[in-house]
Amino acid sequence: MRAGARALLLGGGLLSGAVLLTASGGASDTHPPDAALLAEGRALYEAHCASCHGAQLEGQPDWRRPLPSGRLPAPPHDACGHTWHHPDRILFRIVREGTAAIVGGGYESDMPGFGGILSDAEIEAVLAYIKSTWPERERAHQENLGP
């Protein structure tokens, strides 16, 4: 698969290790995250993610069209985006390591890794918050992707 296609598949970046968010507080009808975890995730999202991905998780305009730099704009993390198309382990690694590290093949991204800024638990909280905003259909699809 071409690097550009892989980048579009991964979405130009959000989110990183094999962590099952549903086992640790992710959004699920059978294991709903607690209010404190979601509040922490929302605060961390606002502090570290919203400047690129939008206060309402809406992403940057024309997020599927490369910028003049050749990099993709930040994708949305709401139901209109594709974040819910990826399993937890990939989302976690994208946040921790950055999109370019996950896509590989010389792909460049403006999505940095947050592993030196956020703890694994904080990354899980951000992802739990994002997942909590999705409608049931998208949450169920994403949960069925497996680890």
TrEMBL record:
Keyword Heme: yes
Start and end residues of each Cytochrome c domain: 36-134
MF terms in GO: electron transfer activity; heme binding; iron ion binding
UniProtKB keywords: Electron transport, Heme, Iron, Metal-binding, Respiratory chain, Signal, Transport
SUPFAM superfamilies linked: Cytochrome c
Protein name per Swiss-Prot or TrEMBL: Cytochrome C oxidase, cbb3-type, subunit III
Sections of the chain in a coiled coil: none
Signal peptide feature range: 1-23
Keyword Iron appears in the UniProt entry: yes
Cofactor requirement: heme c
Organism: Wenxinia saemankumensis
Pfam families: Cytochrom_C (PF00034)
